[in-house]
Specification:
The protein has two helices and 39 strands. The termini are far apart.
Length: 426
């Protein structure tokens, strides 16, 4: 028997502690009912055919969006707090959108408020991880995740990054939260951030094995007592088009870019825009040159505001020399910048400098004056000559007559007893 609520029906199942493996007992139940046979149900499974689900009240029930489902989840200003399990899981093959105000938090080690293997869009809400109640990420992404708005936050952090996009160890095909397991996660996870606030964590976003990150906007800030963590730690492919990135405390470097041998850690970081605050922009790292090398990583800078950065690049060891190709961006005047070939720096704003092409010529005041006083009148003159129609201005009226109606115009004015003076505009 299926019992429907006003919006949705769902299947509720007993699940093990990790949110895996149905123990064998599942029934249809009304949404919002968290009891089965007098016992609390540990998971709410959203199956295909369910279009929307609104959190009816504060809940401790895990939500799992199953393969084939396409659902909108409204947090409805409520709190979803789970213990020992991930709060929201989106399975591979499932599509979900989370919206509305509300808070999602997971207590326990190794569990996250969001664990995505499918296609997930987040349009609102707060996703909180408190490491005093168990260390782990606030978001683990092994699928396709688009973050448009909301807050991702970590309190009392000591070890974990706020967000992990990709696999900690791609080759581990036994543990799906660590490596790529066919049928569970997606081989090439992607994350796109169009807005929102990301704060806290021993590093904000870690791009792991086979992960791809694109940041178009958003606010990213972190304060950490040590210097070995950064806001963005890229191991594969990351592109920054916009956003504000601020470090504080001992964390004085904004970005890290690394390459590991093995094919799943390309180490390509592209910066096209954004505003960056910190002592250092890019941190290159190498632990063991025999196993991996940051010399194979590459950072490309085509734009951005770096006027609150003192140093572009700092090596982790003297052995590494990661290339940084700079073809754009604005920097502090005293910051050492080595532009790419065919580029140069010019002074701007009375104290900063900008990277531009070598053939760039800044417009002068005279050039701007010529544009206004010469070019525009000449264009109008050419347009008038093209029309081939001379005009007559009637005094005191501002009216203009074309040459073909000149005689009739004069006759009309004379018959009215008016004195007319005509001037032909050439």
């Amino acid at each position: 028997m299926v019992v429907k609520s006003l919006e949705v029906f769902a299947i509720r199942s007993y699940r093990d502690k990790c949110g895996l493996g149905v123990l064998g007992l599942s029934v249809f139940a009304a949404v919002g009912v968290s009891m089965l046979g007098g016992k609390a149900v540990s998971a709410l499974d959203i199956q295909p055919g369910v279009d929307s689900y609104t959190l009816p009240g504060d809940s401790s029930e895990q939500i799992v969006v199953k393969n084939g489902a396409n659902v909108k989840i409204n947090l409805n200003g409520k709190t979803l707090r789970t213990s020992g399990v991930d709060s929201v899981i989106v399975d591979k093959g499932a599509t979900a959108t989370i919206e509305g105000d509300g808070t999602v938090t997971a207590e326990g080690t190794g569990v996250a408020p969001i664990y995505n293997n499918g296609d997930l869009t987040i349009n609102g809400g707060t996703y909180l991880k408190d490491e005093s109640k168990g260390a782990y990420y606030a978001i683990l992404n092994h699928g396709n995740l688009t973050f448009n708005n909301g807050t991702v936050k970590m309190d009392n952090f000591t070890t974990s990054s706020l967000v992990d996009d990709g696999y900690y160890d791609f080759a581990n095909d036994k543990e799906h939260k660590i490596g790529y397991v066919s049928g569970v996660g997606q081989e090439e996870p992607t994350m796109t951030i169009n807005g929102g606030t990301f704060t806290g964590g021993a590093g904000i976003i870690k791009v792991d094995d086979n992960g791809t990150l694109t940041i178009n906007d958003g606010t990213f800030s972190a304060s950490y007592p040590k210097t070995d963590r950064m806001i963005i730690m890229n191991n594969h492919v990351a592109t920054i088009n916009g956003g504000t990135f601020t470090t504080a405390g001992g964390m004085n470097t904004v970005l890290m870019n690394r390459h590991y041998d093995g094919g799943h850690n390309e180490g390509t970081l592209t910066i096209n825009g954004g505003s960056f605050v910190g002592q250092k922009l890019i941190h290159e790292e190498s632990y063991d040159e025999s196993s991996h090398s940051s010399t194979d990583a590459k950072t490309i800078v085509t734009g951005g505001d770096f006027t609150k950065i003192d140093t572009v690049k700092t090596p982790y060891t003297a052995k590494t020399n990661m290339p940084v190709e700079i073809s754009g961006g604005t920097f502090k005047k005293d910051t050492e910048v080595e532009p790419a070939a065919e580029y140069k720096t010019i002074d701007i704003n009375g104290g900063d400098k900008k990277v531009v092409p070598k053939d760039y010529v800044e417009p002068t005041d005279d050039t701007k004056k010529d544009d206004k006083e010469v070019t525009k009148p000449r264009a109008e003159e050419a347009k008038t000559k093209e029309s081939g129609a001379a005009k007559i201005a009637a005094p005191n009226t501002g009216a203009e007559l074309d040459q073909g109606s000149m005689i009739s115009g004069f006759m009309a004015l004379l018959s009215a007893g008016l004195a007319v003076f005509a001037k032909i505009k050439l």
